[in-house]
Amino acid sequence: MSVEGIIVDKERTSKTIEMSLQARENRTLIFSEDIIPPEEHFVQIIREYSKEINDERFPLNALFLTTTMVFGSDTRSFFRGISDLDQVRRYAWIFMPERVVGVERSEVFGACEDFLKPAGYSQNALEQWIHNCRVLAEQYGGDVRNFFKRNDNNAQRIIDSLVVYPRAKTKYKKEFRRFGPKLSRLFVQWVSQYQLYDLEGTEEVGLPVDFQIARIIIQTGGLRLDEPTQAHYLTQKVLLPLLISLCSENKWSTQEVSETLWLVGSHCCNKRKHEQCPVNDMCGRLISRQPYDKGGLFDPKDFGRYEIV
User: Fold this and answer.
1) Contact between 89 and 124 (Cβ < 8 Å)
2) Tens of pLDDT along 115-142?
3) CB 178 within 8 Å of CB 98
4) 306 has a pLDDT exceeding 80
């Protein structure tokens, strides 16, 4: 099947997912030892701190705001830098919407920079942090759970209410900022995965498709590109529907597929541990992240898995 220059091999994509899931289930290769998802320790810490201060709003508010900074960064390094209970105690107020809107903008900027150290930092990112806090404080009583309730606790409605599409005109802007198709699904997935709140329909909304997941499918031939391809189109218009369809047909958990493929990309591709990869025999290249970060493109060219003569 071909979709505007992208050749889709559904059977090969299915085999890639199946082999990855089997390796994880059987605890072989990269999964022979426990791999802790990068956000897990942070979630544990914000839960622990919420008990210290007796504030049930804190974990979801903290995760909601933090998700907006998982953008253009190494997720593992980012969460490693903020997963410290003493530091969370010191900077907890930046996750409290009423506190944020009650202090000077420069103070919020300084605290966010000190604690989050966001990659690809821009002033706009922190302006949007303040904006989101203001919306939470003024429209939802400083509690993201009230936003969930306004959307009937339904995962798809929450995503639809969050997603801000690239270059959207002002009249199409949503209440909250900085949530695209990937980050909105990622947030909903984490809420469900760590049982922070009971949402309906989390398995039906698909999975957050990022560079790590897409690269695995491209490198194993599930998607074949002849030239650099626009990332948003590939992930949201081609790959996301394909993965949703395969998960439905095979009764796979979208959460498990998402996490498993991400771990394969993060631990095998990033660290070039190809011999530990469950789809090593299917993989024909290693694509670079640079075109994705700099120009929003997937470039199918092998940049170094094999010696190029």
Assistant:
1) no
2) 998 665 567 888 999 999 999 999 999 9
3) no
4) no
Residue-averaged pLDDT of the chain: 91
Residue with tokens 């821009």: 122
Query: Which DSSP string do the residues of 268-308 spell out, in sequence order?
Result: IITTT-GGG-TTGGG----B-SHHHHHHSEE---B-SSS--
Q: How many CA atoms lie within 13 A of 56 on its CB side?
A: 4
Q: What strands lie across the sheet with 223-225, from one edge to the other? A: 2-3, 6-8, 223-225
Distance, in Å, from the CA atom of 6 to the CA atom of 299, rounded to the nearest integer, reads 12
Catalogue the long-range contacts made by 300-308 (C-beta closer than 8 Å, 24 or more residues apart): 300/218, 300/224, 300/225, 300/226, 300/227, 300/228, 300/229, 305/272, 305/274
**Residue 177 CB contacts under 8 Å (≥ 6 apart), including other chains:** 68, 128, 131, 132, 164
* Spatial distance between the Cα atoms of 177 and 164, rounded to a whole number of angstroms: 7
**Taking the model in full, what pTM does it have?**
0.86
